[in-house]
Amino acid sequence: MQSESTYQSSLSTVLNGALAKGLFWLGSAQVLGRIVRLGSSIIIARLLTPEIFGQVAIILTCFELICTPTRRISSAALIKMDDSQLKHSLSAANRVNWLAAITAFVAMSLLSWPLAIYYDDLQLILPMILMATSYLLLPFGMLYAAINLRLNRMRVVGRAVLWQTVFDAILTGSFALLGLGIWAIILPKIIVVFIWIGVHRYHNPLPETLASPASEPRWQLLPANSKAILKFGLQVGLGDLAIALRQNIDYILVGYFLGIEALGVYFFAFNASLGISLGLVQSYGTALYSYLCQKGKETDPKQLTVEQKYFQSLKFIMLLTLPIISLQALLAPLYVPWVYGQKWLDAGALPIFILLCLSGLVRPLGEAASQYLISSGRGQLNLLYNGAFTAILAVTIALSSLWGLQGVALGILLSHLLVMPSFTLYLKLTQPITNTSHCRSEAFYDC
């Protein structure tokens, strides 16, 4: 009875504490943004063709896969540092950010040519290169975003997400009505980066930067502290890349096996069915990592370990997402044709919509597992898990594509239902006997 009482008390702490507040701000921003985006989605779904959706799917998939390893290239390390380390590492982190941004820009620009040749569509080149320029804007806000995350200012982080999404939706709908075609989706995604930068920098000065040790030559491109940040960031980034590849491998393979028009139908069904739930899952992951890395008072007898925080947060997120996703799937036959138009039903999008929506029931488990493994110093296991799951999904999609888009959606659903709960159970059975929840240690990358 005492252990049960302790569990209920700690769960109540999770529900009322930093994680719940962080998820509230991030999740509400995602939901409000998605509501605004719904109007934009209705407009572009009625004005743009499946072929244009297919082109957009290719561009945004490439952008996401290249952007993902750079997104936390420095912030994952900065969040785990103490105040002194942070002041000594800001300049080094800025170098790492610029190196990652320039590399990403070059990579996506070069990738546009072979993709255009492969799909026999030279119209992909210019939108891809223009989309790549947004990478060069990110370093102007990355350090400021890391500081907000480190201090658990999820209200500010949520505000940045909300205003980005709102302006993206408004501009996309407006440009689509003006007849800009594919540019109606690409241009807003570059413009709203300035909004993200402005929100994170507003009234958020960086801490005083302390000089690097005198023994380090100032002319070095990457001094020792930059290399440490880069090493840790690459480990986190590769894990995130495996997640992004897992989340986007379906676009790549559907386009390869079934063609660009089928990819357009799939892209529409995926974003319409999983847009809100994936937004909540991503918000949960962002809030969870900062929550797991928070350092409490060492004398507090109620101080939770990383494992306790992780497993109690799972119950919290599942209680939140299960009813939302279940209701969405149940009502899909009623609102999909009314909201998005009959042409998507004629294209066979409804069963794909429902199957993909149901896969969202267990997706929070995968996001939570990744953040837990990174925060507890097991980034290699995170990379192995996501890499293995990506391989399973790739094989499943390749085989199920023989039965068309519905076969692919069913294969994705079954893969998620099998792998994610199984890995969560594995983590439960193999959790360390002893551990510390204090991630801001003297060696941040050994936490």
UniProtKB/TrEMBL annotation:
Membrane association type: Multi-pass membrane protein
Predominant cellular place of this UniProt entry's protein: membrane
Transmembrane segments: 96-119, 125-149, 170-197, 252-269, 314-338, 344-362, 383-403, 409-427
Alphabetic keyword roster: Cell membrane, Membrane, Transmembrane, Transmembrane helix
Alphabetical list of InterPro entries matching this protein: Poly_Biosynth_Transport
Entry's localization field: Cell membrane
UniProt xrefs under PANTHER family: LIPOPOLYSACCHARIDE BIOSYNTHESIS PROTEIN WZXC, PST FAMILY PREDICTED COLANIC ACID TRANSPORTER
Stated family: Belongs to the polysaccharide synthase family.
Name of the protein in question: Oligosaccharide flippase family protein
